[in-house]
Amino acid sequence: MGRRVSKKSKIKKACEVCDILNHEYGTDLRCYLKYDPEKPWQLLFATIMSAQCTDDRVNMVTEELYKKYPTLESVAAADVGEFGRDIYSTGFYRNKARNIVACAGVLVQDYGGELPRTMEELVALPGVGRKTANVIMGNIYREPSVVVDTHVKRVSKRLGLTDTEDPEKAEYELREVLPRDQWILYNLQVIAHGREVCKSQRPRCAECVLREMCEYAGQNP
Question: Helices (DSSP H) in the chain: which residue ranges?
């Protein structure tokens, strides 16, 4: 069994991690998925499409997709089969298309075309889980949120800030130890770090700015 680490120690470590990430990646808030800020529903649907797909691929698809479907109403009225073919390359396109078209319909009919502002309302939308809802809360409404994607889960576990494979449990564990004003930044910084340095296969531990406090790097020098 591994050594039990106190919550106080994890909080101290999380603060140190955030300081290093701020220095390495800066503190500018940015979103890797492209969307029109005047049309926040575009980010919602892009995030749904990003499941098991890279942001770069989603951005390639949405560049043409949102020309074909320029309004929320046009998405709601779309033929599901045709919409699925339009997003085919994002993978799992049938489920994604069904959920996105249904979600657009709910937003038009029940919310007047606006995105809900609460976690409870967001996760009640077709195809929207906590990860997608947190993306909207953080990027659209600037509400502190912790988005646990594959990079955040992997890096956080290697650092010893979480000890679970369950994304929702990891979200709550990170909320307990990260400074609240760093939640959104941590998401963005760790996604960048996970893509470039702390990769799933062959992580570049020797080049990692977090190696001195990383449990994984200590075991795999």
Answer: 7-25, 41-49, 55-68, 72-76, 80-86, 93-111, 119-123, 130-139, 150-159, 167-177, 183-196, 215-219
Residue 73 and residue 108 in contact, taking contact as beta carbons nearer than 8 Å: yes
pLDDT at 221: 59
Give the mean model confidence (pLDDT) for residues 202-210: 94
**CATH architecture designation of domain 7-29+146-219:** Orthogonal Bundle (1.10)
Tokens 């955030």 found at: 18
Mind telling me the catalytic residues?
A: 131, 149
Q: Mind giving me the DSSP string for 130-149?
A: HHHHHHHHHHTS--------
pTM for the full model? 0.87
Structure tokens at 140: 């659209």
Q: Between the CA of residue 43 and those of 50, 191, 198, what are the distances in Å? A: 10, 17, 26
Tally of residues, the chain: 221
* Class (C level, CATH) for 41-139: mainly alpha
